[in-house]
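Review this:
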Amino acid sequence: ERERRNLSFTLLAGQGRVPPHIVFVMVEDQGIGYHGSEIHMPVLDQLAGERVKLENYYVQPICSPSCSQLMTGRYQIHTGLQHSIIHARQPLCLPPNIPTLPERLRQAGYSTHMVGKWHLGFCRPECLPMSCGFQSFLGSLTGKTPTICEPNTVPVKEILRGHDQWTPLFLYVALQAVHTPLQAPGHLLRNYQTLGHRPLRHYAAMVSGVDESVGMIVSELRERGYYNNSVLIYSSDSGGQPVSWGCNWPLRGGKGSYWEGGVRAVGFVHSPLLKTKGVVSQALIHVSDWYPTLLTYIVLHLFVDQCSLIHPLVHFLSSIRSFSDMPLPCTPPHASLILLPFALMLVLYPNLL
């Protein structure tokens, strides 16, 4: 089976068709995005505006449940993480019998790396990131870490510089910002001296720090030649925390609540593979949708001959018009596969991944 996958990638590489590199950036508690504010976010504004803004995008009200749904594609009630975050003394983690997104991507030939905050348990060795599909991990296992973003970009750059571009890459960057404690470097704080409250100045500077970090990642993608064959996904893990100056206006509520302000999140997809620009999607999307959507898209690239752009992706991507511009295959060995939900695909074709 492994030889068959390696052969598939060799053939794809020979045709210049390496499956897209995937960079997923998860931020904490960002209640505002590209909707206009006093906070400077030129990179996020540009990346979101150039491709697809997800304006009806939902997550869970706190971090561990949201991240668990990203990693497993399952609602947190099925993983035992529905109650709260995983505290340092809790013997709790992702169930080891549930295949994670990086595990599936590794089976499909991807190189998988994580930088940032895990917060999905560490009570046993099998709970750690490198036991859950990641080939490398540098970051924090809990949520109690410094929140300045810039140090996280250093290992990201090292990963991109040392990676073979003919091997598809999945890079998960989980930033602690803009979670408390409110910390920001001086060069960003100087941009907000006119804001009245010191905590608000720090919060605004932290958001700008996230913007700056994402800009560094995109610049590195461009410089190292990944950008033209990459998909960048940006997501907050919850709504903003009002007591820490997070703003969800005009939505009611905030982090920790099931009001719209707690579960409706900032999210966008940016990729040069998306030819249509400036799309604002109102499709109902949940953080758990990334797992089946990304895997289905990879399956189409791996096992189907490319010839035209007529087939939509499954789930929510089929409702985003610009995704029809992506170079998708047109005549698979089993044409009905494209029309099936991913879970049903695995039932009918268990050896597909």
Notes: The chain is about 30% helix and 15% strand. The domain at 2-348 is CATH 3.40.720.10 (Alkaline Phosphatase, subunit A). The chain has one domain: 2-348. The two ends are 9 Å apart (CA to CA).
